[in-house]
Amino acid sequence: MSEDLILIGKVIKPHGVKGELRIEYFNPEEPSFFSNYRQILLRDERGVLKPFRLLKVRPHKRFLLVKLEGLRSREEASRWRGGEVLVRRDELPPLGEDEYYWQDILGMEVFTKEGKYLGEVKEILRTGSNDVYVVRKNRKELLLPALKEVILEVDCKEGKMVVNLIEGLT
Known about the structure:
This protein is mostly beta strands. Helices cover 5% and strands 46% of the residues. The chain is built from 2 helices and 12 strands, in the order βββββαβαββββββ. The protein has helices spanning 74-78, 102-105, and strands spanning 5-15, 20-25, 39-43, 49-60, 63-68, 84-88, 109-112, 117-125, 132-137, 140-145, 151-155, 160-163. The chain has a 6-stranded antiparallel barrel with strand order 1-2-5-4-3-6. The chain has a 6-stranded mixed sheet with strand order 10-9-8-7-12-11, with no helix packed on it. β8 and β9 (132-137) form a beta hairpin. The longest helix is centred in the middle third of the chain and has 5 residues, at 74-78. It is elongated, with a radius of gyration of 18 Å. The two termini are 33 Å apart.
């Protein structure tokens, strides 16, 4: 994936007969921000990437219903089922202190504060209170809550995370 593209959601399925898409947006705390994007890009399951201008966005249950320029029918929208929703990094909202985009966390190497290598962040789980980083090394899996007392340092440039293994995590 190009460094300037950020994954922000997933196309679940078409909605209705006029080309709308049902999208799972990965920023559930700020669903209204989706309408601020000038352009989104969709990547289908074959890897084809296409830009679209946003025409309309509305919430629907825990998803967004999105109308894009150029998608006029259910059949045209069906092509993007299961696809990725991306934006250019410069269109994202600014981050606060100790905030990171998922794409920057995924793939990071994880070490204890003593320097022991624990594995790589392979997945991020959303929970009600905080994200959980799934760290894998060989066949071992470690779940790390994204809390200040656990995640001590995140270095995006080096692709490295330093953690404190509090009691109950190992």
